[in-house]
Recover the amino acids of this structure.
């Protein structure tokens, strides 16, 4: 096989590993969902993605599937194999025991307990190792995990659905439905890709959302409510999110009565400092959520909460679903923001765009 043909073949098998990993993204938190493919003489003899946390890693599952055909075979894996014992034995041990002769890794794992140690052990044992195949695609695949490991903070995705004039609701508060079903299905898939999903107290009071994954397949993220005074708990209504398994962030302004009501509901409360306006300090919230090993969080609204994240510069991607509607004097997608001049306003960088029925999705990153 020529060098160019070999490179093309390697890329094709790594793309298979990427697709496997992407199919399980969100289901293995807090671990990343890794993809692994075992190839012997040009034939795939084993392939797998990571199991749920505590279960076998992708490499082990793929090797078990390959059996004796793994000897002298090539392993393609999106993330560096671990060499430490955690909830499961080291993947490097399984790779060496299987007799793999060549390993192609998408990206090194920057976690302190890995950080090149897996690659080093394999090379020391005489295994041929290459790192960086389709690296850009793999870094995008594992963006949530890599960002959290590098910064200690969750990868933050802002999501909003607006009319073409940037409104998330009419002046009377009606917002159902601005976008069509294809866009709503996409938004539910996006929820399933995140470790947590957040809304503000006003959104809970106005819309009573469930924040689960209904229109797509995937695991429900952890619901997080930004509620500086615990208005939801003290409202005396049976909200969907006033239950066990939901995290409420609040400030010292929350009354004792509201705290007791939250405790009775079974939901968890986490006190955070307030900003100059008396709202939850976004920087403190992101730090504390990261410390709880939340890899990613999707912020759904409302406009005040989205505006707070933009003002703090505490976000990595913005998913904007735009419908061909004009709502006029409605509620803005980003509230509480103002800049004296156009030049001072943050300019974003479009990453990709797609049509979803009559609507348009554009994904942005900070400029």
């Amino acid at each position: 096989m020529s060098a160019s043909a070999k490179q093309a073949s390697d890329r094709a098998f790594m793309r298979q590993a990427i697709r496997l990993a992407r199919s399980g993204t969100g289901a293995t938190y807090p671990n990343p969902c890794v993809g692994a493919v075992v190839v012997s003489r040009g034939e795939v003899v084993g392939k797998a993605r990571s199991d749920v946390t505590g279960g076998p890693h992708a490499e082990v599952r793929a090797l078990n599937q390959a059996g004796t055909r793994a000897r002298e075979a090539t392993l393609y894996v999106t993330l560096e194999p671990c060499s430490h014992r955690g909830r499961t034995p080291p993947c490097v041990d399984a790779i060496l025991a299987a007799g793999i002769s060549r390993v192609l890794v998408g990206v090194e794992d920057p976690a302190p307990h890995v950080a090149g140690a897996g690659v080093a052990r394999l090379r020391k044992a005489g295994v041929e190792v290459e790192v960086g195949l389709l690296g850009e695609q793999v870094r995008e695949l594992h963006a949530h995990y890599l960002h959290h490991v590098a910064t200690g903070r969750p990868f933050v995705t802002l999501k909003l659905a607006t009319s073409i004039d940037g409104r998330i609701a009419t002046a009377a508060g009606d917002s159902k439905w601005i976008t069509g079903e294809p866009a709503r299905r996409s938004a539910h898939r996006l929820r399933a890709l995140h470790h947590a999903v957040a809304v503000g107290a006003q959104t809970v009071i106005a819309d009573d959302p469930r924040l689960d994954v209904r229109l797509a397949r995937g695991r429900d993220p952890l619901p997080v409510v930004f509620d500086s005074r615990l208005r939801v708990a003290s409202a005396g209504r049976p909200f969907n999110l006033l239950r066990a398994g939901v995290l409420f962030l609040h400030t010292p302004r929350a009354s004792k009565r509201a705290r007791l009501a939250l405790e009775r509901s079974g939901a968890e409360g986490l006190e955070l400092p307030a900003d100059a306006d008396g709202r939850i300090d976004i920087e403190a919230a992101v730090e504390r959520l990261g410390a709880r090993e939340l890899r990613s969080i999707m912020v759904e609204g409302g406009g005040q909460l989205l505006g707070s994240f933009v003002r703090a510069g505490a976000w990595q991607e913005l998913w904007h679903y735009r419908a061909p509607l004009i709502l006029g004097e409605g509620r803005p997608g980003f509230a509480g923001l103002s800049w004296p001049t156009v030049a001072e306003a943050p300019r974003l960088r479009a990453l990709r765009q797609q049509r979803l029925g009559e609507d348009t999705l554009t994904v942005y990153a900070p400029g």
User: Anything to note?
Assistant: The two ends are 43 Å apart (CA to CA). The CA atoms of residues 84 and 90 lie 5 Å apart. DSSP finds twelve helices and 16 strands in the chain. The longest strand covers residues 155-163.
